[in-house]
Amino acid sequence: MKQLGKRKSKAAFSMVELTIVVVILGILATFAVPRFMSSVEKTKASEAFSYLAQIESAQVRHNTEKGRYAWSLRDLDITVKSPEFFYVSGPYSSNWETKWEMELTRNGASSGFGRYTVVFDQDGFNETKSSIPADLKPAL
Question: What is the pLDDT of residue 9?
Fold first, then answer.
């Protein structure tokens, strides 16, 4: 004989269990997403440092050979592709025999870091004139 009042239980998640899982995933995402976005922006910022380090090396060679720094990138002995994530300004100087300066400005969205600049000169990275956040600076 069949018993009338008993139901077979089905294996399934209750609404409370699903809610707890969703809350835990939300908390994990709250910490992971900003860290991931910061990492992505740091990689983009490294593009500026790499580009400007190449320009700096070429400027040193040009100065050694010609006795002055190059006022145009076309005068340098390298061909470098323009950075994808930065607007290039310069090189410029008030005295090409002793100094030069070049600035890259971040264009487009920058993962909440805002628009920032990276400046190099005859001495390398110019931290005083650059506005790049400390979190994005590579170890030099």
Answer: 62
The percent helix, strand, coil of the chain (3-state, each to 5) is 40, 15, 45
Phi and psi based region of residue 95 (left: phi greater than 0; alpha: psi -120 to 50; beta: remaining): beta
Cα separation, 137 vs 113, in Å, equals 12
Q: Is the overall model pTM greater than 0.85, yes or no? A: no
CA-based angle 24:26:27, to the nearest 5?
Answer: 65
Calpha distance 73→78 (Å, rounded): 8
pLDDT digits (tens, 9 = 90+) for 32-47: 666 767 778 888 899 9
Domains of the chain, by residue range, sit at: 42-136
